[in-house]
Design brief:
Blueprint lengths: L4 H4 L3 H11 L2 E2 H11 L8 H13 L3 E5 L9 E5 L1 H25 L5
Antiparallel strand pairs: 1-3, 2-3
Length: 111
């Protein structure tokens, strides 16, 4: 079963903040982790991912810096800020509340 993109679309920022809460990372690695966690059922399109990075950085929720790779291209890493951690907490709480409401609304009633 494929995860419906429409269901997840509004939570891209929260997903990225969750990944960065664990450790600093870069775009490709974040997307790879998302794919692994979902058994390849979901991935962020590159344009969506980098638009979210820009939006989150403009809001002050993340910061970026260039890595010091000795081999290969330099990578732009992202780190979550204290404000980003607070935003993640708020968004996660919002998701939990929404999930509870949806569960109530879609439960069937035995007749």
């Amino acid at each position: 079963m494929s995860i419906a993109s429409d269901l997840i679309r509004g939570h891209t920022d929260t997903i990225i903040l969750a990944q960065l809460s664990a450790a600093d990372s870069y775009g490709y690695q974040i997307n790879k982790t998302i794919q692994e966690k979902t058994n390849q059922e979901y991935e962020l399109k590159e344009a969506t991912l980098y638009s979210a990075f820009r939006r989150l950085e403009d809001a002050g929720f993340i910061c970026s810096y260039w890595g010091n790779e000795n081999v290969g291209a330099r990578r732009r890493y992202y780190t979550i800020t204290p404000e980003g951690r607070e935003e993640y907490r708020r968004k996660k709480e919002e998701w939990e509340n929404s999930k509870q409401l949806i569960d109530l609304l879609i439960q069937t009633v035995e007749k």
